[in-house]
Every structure is written in structure tokens, then in C-alpha cells.
């Protein structure tokens, strides 16, 4: 019997790569994100293979009413979801706390923490009732170690780590599994978003060494959800070989 995965933030990066990896593995897909055009393009790409089933739900995860409307429009996506990948997240800005913009804090908190909570709340009760399901949260090495200019982003990823542990405890004995994936440097649109569209500055983050790619994380996520039901990969820290610590990168 086929499985159904719901992936947030599927319009680019790790989310889109995970959608492609899952499709190759025969997993049916519900893809969410804010950018309608990108979602539609990805669904069209995936469903060009007649063996792939994928559909899109475009909405802003920060908007509780929009999520409720999505649930109402496609209840089966949430009620029958076997795999939830809470991938949507971002960092915005690198200014120290005393110079940062509070609206950037709100965007990170609303997406990385509240959005994850709302989506989990929409899906998890059905998993608990069925006694089966996997939730994969995309954390970060920033959820373990803090760096200058990243206090709020790091705080949100510390929250993801705590929530992953807490959810796992709350569903103890239910058969539901919870995994927290904590990557180091991954070359995606992440830095471009953080630097407000400054691609030249963003590209410098990944120069001089070999970073992880979105496909690397997608393969890892697929491996986690494909473990037998008695195995829960609780937490994985994944660095590129050229990175030994959060601010220690071997550049050539």
C-alpha cells in the first residue's frame, strides 16, 4: 500500500529535493508552500511520470486561518498523512540583537516554530489514532550551537530540537516516530534569503569548500522514514566533511 507524505516548504531547496526523492520511492505527495507557481511547476514535473501522485496546497504557514482553510479544502491530506516533513523555515538577517529588525524575529518565529507547531497539530492526532506515522523536523546545527548574529534563528532551531524531543515523549507508546535532522552548511537558497536577495554575498558562504546539497539531505530523510517501524532515528547531525564545527570550515 502506498504511503502519503506531506512536505512543507516544498518550493525549493531541501523540500523540493525531498519531494523528488519520495516520488522516486513511490511515495504519494502533498506539497505545500507560499509560491503557487513553483508548487505547480514541481507537481507538473513529478506527475509527468504516470506512476507519481502529487498535489499542491499553496498557503502561508504563518497564517493560522490559511492553514485551517487548507485543511478544510483537502482533509484527506492531513487525516491520511503517513509522513510529515516539517521543512519550511528560514533565517533573516545577520545583525546583532541590538541592531536587528523585530519584524525579522517575527518572521523566523512564526515560520520556524509556530508554523511547525500548527502543521504538526493538524496531522499528529490522526497518526496517533492510527498508531503509525513519521514526523521529520528540519532542525539545524544552529539548534545545538549559537553563533554571533544568529541569536534568534538559533533560538528557533533550539526550539525545534526541544519540540522534537517533547513530541516524541507526548506520543510515547503510540507507534508514531519523530526525527530531528540537523544539517550544517547546505547550499540552497537559505543564504540568499538571509541576505535579502544578495546572491553575490550568499554565494560566498559556499565558496572554497564542498558543502552539502539539498539532494544529500533528501536521501537522508528518505532513509530515516524507510526504517522498519520499530526503529526511530531520533536525531541526526549532518556536516559536510569540510565542516568540523558550526564556524569551523576548511576552505581551500
Q: How would you explain this protein's 3D organization?
A:
The strands form 3 sheets. The protein has a 7-stranded parallel β-sheet, with helices on both faces. Strands 7-8 form a two-stranded parallel ribbon. Strands 10-11 form a two-stranded antiparallel ribbon. It has helices spanning 13-24, 36-47, 64-73, 75-79, 102-130, 151-170, 190-194, 199-204, 214-225, and strands at 4-7, 28-33, 54-58, 83-86, 133-138, 176-183, 186-187, 212-213, 235-238, 243-245, 248-249. It contains 9 helices and 11 strands. α1 crosses α9 (214-225) and α5 (102-130) runs parallel beside α6 (151-170). The mean pLDDT is 97. The chain has a single domain (4-249), classed as Rossmann fold. The chain has 252 residues and is an alpha/beta fold. Helices cover 44% and strands 18% of the residues.
Produce a short descriptive summary.
Helix content is 44%, strand content 18%. It contains 9 helices and 11 strands. The protein has a 7-stranded parallel sheet with strand order 3-2-1-4-5-6-9, sandwiched between helices. A two-stranded parallel sheet has the order 7-8. A two-stranded antiparallel sheet has the order 10-11.
